[in-house]
Every structure is written in C-alpha cells, then in structure tokens.
Amino acid sequence: xxxLLFAVITTLTLNTxxxxxxxxxxxxxxxxxxxxxxxxxxxxxxxxxxxxxVVSSGELEKAGMGFALxxxxxxxGVQTTIVIGAKALNSAKLEGxxxxxxxxxxxxxxxxxxAIKAGALVQIYSMSAKxxxxxxxxxxxxxxxxxSINIFEKMYEENTKLLSF
Length: 165
Description:
Layout: H1 2-14, H2 16-22, E1 50-55, H3 60-75, E2 79-84, E3 100-101, E4 106-107, H4 108-118, E5 121-125, H5 126-131, E6 143-146, H6 148-155, E7 160-164
Parallel strand pairs: 1-2, 1-7, 2-5, 5-6
Antiparallel strand pairs: 3-4
C-alpha cells in the first residue's frame, strides 16, 4: 500500500500540468514548467441562437416558466422574442395585482421588464389585445402590440427554436 501511494504521488508530481489540465485547475509552476491557466467561460455562450417563446396560458406557474426561460435565454446571449396572447396578457399589463412566480421570486411583470432591459423583444398578439379592449398604453414599457405576420416572421427566421406555454 505504501508503494502504491508513493507511485500515485510521484506520478501526480511529475505530471502536474497534465493533471491540472484534466481537472481544469490553475497550478503554480515549478522552475521548469509554464503556468496552466484556466480558460475564462464565455459570458454569452449562446450568441447567435434564436428563440421564440409563445405564452398564452394565464396560469401563474406555466406562464412564469415561459417568461423565466426567456429571461435566462436573453442573459445567455440568445436572440429572444416573447410573444404574449390570450389569458397571459395580464402578465404584461401596466397595472393590476400579480402574484410572484416562486422560482424567480418575481411577478411576471418584473420578469418581463428585466427581459426587455436585457434586450428581449416582447410582443403582444394584436387580436388578443383587441378582444380585451387593450391598447399600447395598457402595457409595460418596451412591449409592442403586433400583428400575426410579425410573429410569423420571427418564428420562421432561420435557426429559430420555438417554445409554447
């Protein structure tokens, strides 16, 4: 057992840089070795990807998951469009009481505002807004009421993924 332990320690000592590379470590070099540096992770690892999230559910958790994924995606560099329609419209309204989405400890409105601030495009389906008698002034800053063709254009852009909640 002594010899096995000695062999392992000797091997690790002789191959410090290889060991460090294998386990992504930073090590102090000995007199004859160059330092092994850990590569910095990209801030936006998904730059160039595109995502459209359609949220039509008025359910707190279901809509919240869609909005939270949208916020996460934009923060990772994904070009994100969140389309809101039907019963989810209350989430983007300027006024009204909203419960907190537990996973983010924020209301839908707060999540959407953060996503917009981070660069997400948030669109309201015009037919849903019209059916409820809502206009642009009824929604939070940065949200835009659009027609179906605008939504389709985003959905059919090359290399775009679609999620629906």
